[in-house]
Specification:
With 225 residues, this protein is α/β, with parallel strands linked by helices. The protein has 7 helices and 9 strands. The radius of gyration is 22 Å and the shape is elongated. The structure holds 6-chloroguanine.
Length: 225
């Protein structure tokens, strides 16, 4: 899978994909992430990519021309399954969307900044609009990093048995059960004995019960929809 990310702040996306699971996914060539600086595609002087909103008001708006310019140049190399605009007024991202997007071949993420991007780009080129939650970030970059991580780790072959996504929270609408490791006893706090029993069926049953009770307590909404 390839994920291209258009941004006016490429430096914000330097770190997140260079470590751990996403690093390995790229080394294995299961995932390619390209960060594209919108300023390289401007048609205006001094690499200007934004301007004042028509009608007045606070904040700047990213212009349609550099966006279309960048998109058209990228489309000469790549056919995108989706052009996704990261925006707080988009559909709230969840595990089901991550699962669906992990099956695509090429994705383009557009990061807004300032007051957003010209609505005409959204109307004519964007195929999905996604938010990562009900709060406002300074731009879409951190949201793009969140999506890339959530999607990238689901690409077949990226995770191994140790890191398997099958036991993740949300994968079956349940939160994950508690986990323990050495030592068996720390200052009198001991590990639930069932986990030391060697009885795999009992362990699996216990984990399921724990997942259900944790979900009932913390996220009852997950059990109803
Ligand atoms: Cl995708 N962008 C911005 N700027 N803020 C957000 C968001 C996205 N998702 C939640 N808040």
């Amino acid at each position: 899978m390839k994920i291209d990310i258009i941004t006016v702040v490429p430096d914000l996306l330097n770190g997140p994909f260079s470590h751990s699971i996403l690093k390995r996914a790229q080394e294995k060539e299961l995932l390619q992430v390209n960060v594209i600086n919108l300023r390289d595609y401007t048609t205006y002087a001094r690499a200007q990519v934004d301007d004042y909103p028509f009608g007045g008001g606070a904040g700047m708006v990213i212009m349609i021309e550099p966006l279309v310019n960048a998109l058209e140049q990228l489309q000469q190399q790549t056919t995108y399954d989706d052009v996704i605009f990261l925006t707080p007024d988009g559909n709230t991202f969840n595990q089901k969307m991550a699962n669906q997007l992990s099956l695509k071949k090429n994705l383009l993420f557009i990061c807004g900044h300032y007051k957003g991007i010209d609505q005409r780009f959204r109307d004519h080129f964007v195929t999905q609009e996604i938010s990562i939650g009900d709060y406002v970030l300074s731009g879409g970059e951190l949201a793009a990093a969140v999506l890339t991580d959530a999607i990238g780790r689901l690409i077949p072959g990226v995770l191994n048995d140790e890191t398997s996504a099958l036991t993740d929270s949300f994968q079956d609408n349940l939160l994950a059960p508690p986990v323990y490791t050495r030592p068996e006893n720390f200052k009198g706090w001991s590990v639930p004995p069932v986990l030391l029993s060697g009885n795999h069926q009992r362990i699996e049953d216990w984990r399921h019960e724990q997942a259900v009770s944790r979900t009932k307590e913390r996220r009852p909404d997950l059990l109803t929809d």
